[in-house]
Amino acid sequence: MDRTAIRQLAVAAITGAGTYAGQRVFSPLTFATWDQIYPVVIVRTPREHKESLVRGQPQFNVTTTISVVGRVQRNTEADAEADIETLGLQIEQALFGNYALVLATQQFPTVEVKTTVTAEGKQWLGEVELEISAEFYQGFDPVIPDVAVTEVRINTDLTSVYDATGNYPNPPFPGSVQPAPRTEGPDGRNEGAGLDIFPSQ
User: Do 134 and 61 contact (CB within 8 A), yes or no?
Assistant: First the structure.
């Protein structure tokens, strides 16, 4: 899961919910197709915050901000106020009632809503802006480079087979050799025959 997928889920949720905006729901990749006809909804994911879960392999709790702006245009201030309030509630219902979006997130920690109505000539423009924090898990798998195996060598220095008093130079596992005199191995010998495997080229 990532912020692009979250944004796409949000767009799909609002588009399919039958709000005042109908199919006029746009995100950065489609905003240029807007025909300047209201109502309209614009969806972006402008901010993201990652918090590491563990050391080592990158795993995060991610909080992405879903910014949703809805706009209506009406002949009177009262109509613009009423319609933009309704559109804001429709957007919330569309997002929080959408199974796919809710399933993709762990929670929505915060929601902030701001509504304004302004005069645009003889028209009134109503705008609602929702900033929704969506939390989800994100993990990254490290890319392991291909390494050609040219040789495999097996050495066996047993604990149950040992020389009680002998010392042997260049043991295969020097950190494990018990000093003489000893009552158990490893003793520094390669009890198992060395096996070299050369993969076919």
Answer: no
Return the SS3 of 168.
Answer: coil
What are the structure tokens assigned to 101, written together? Answer: 């979006």
Confidence of residue 168 (pLDDT cuts 50, 70, 90): confident
Residue 179 exposed, middle or buried by CB count within 10 Å (0-12, 13-18, 19+): exposed
Per residue in 57-77, pLDDT (tens digit) is 889 999 999 999 999 999 999
Residue 119 phi, psi (nearest 5): -85, 130
Domain at 3-139: CATH architecture: 2-Layer Sandwich (3.30)
Q: Which residue has the tokens 């245009």?
A: 73
- Asked if 100 and 9 count as a contact pair (C-beta separation under 8 A), the reply is yes
CB 44, CB 14: distance < 8 Å = no
Burial of residue 76 (number of CB atoms within 10 Å: 0-12, 13-18, 19+): exposed
Separation between Cα atoms, residue 162 and residue 164, nearest integer Å? 6
**152 Cβ contact partners less than 8 Å away, ≥ 6 residues apart:** 195, 196, 197, 199
Ranges of each domain in the chain:
3-139, 148-201
Please write the tens of the pLDDT for every residue from 16-72: 999 999 999 999 878 888 888 999 999 999 999 999 998 888 899 999 999 999 999
CA end-to-end span of the chain, whole Å? 40
